[in-house]
Specification:
Structural class: alpha+beta
Largest sheet: 5 strands, antiparallel
Distance between the termini: 40 Å
Number of helices: 3
Order of helices and strands: HEEEEHEH
Strand order of the largest sheet: 1-2-3-4-5
Shape: globular
């Protein structure tokens, strides 16, 4: 039998609300769309994924978003970075991380 994937942490209602606020903003950007992946919300620019936000599940931390910088010369794991959102005050910084990743996503 294969190895099991580690369980992804459950996300609080507060973090789900924060994810929805971020998604509402990002959907206004040209060529963006969202999808679902393993209990998380994936965000794309065209066909290129550039972020994962907590839906019902998170990645390592239940209160973190992950952005992909899509830079050449990096392994897939090195391209991703996590950013924890501790409270509503962290939303503007999270949005800046999303904007950077969006700018680097292939058009």
């Amino acid at each position: 039998m294969g190895t099991r994937r580690p369980a992804l942490p459950k996300v609080s209602e507060e973090m789900r609300r924060r994810s929805i606020l971020l998604i509402e903003e990002v959907r206004r950007w040209p060529e963006t769309r969202t999808g679902r992946m393993f209990g998380m919300i994936s965000i794309y620019r065209g066909d290129t994924i550039f972020a994962l936000l907590p839906g019902t599940r998170g990645l390592e931390l239940p209160n973190a978003i992950a952005t992909k910088l899509n830079e050449p010369g990096q392994t897939e794991g090195e391209k991703w970075q996590s950013f924890a959102i501790e409270d509503d005050g962290g939303l503007s910084a999270a949005l800046k991380h999303l904007e950077e990743a969006y700018g680097k996503a292939k058009k």
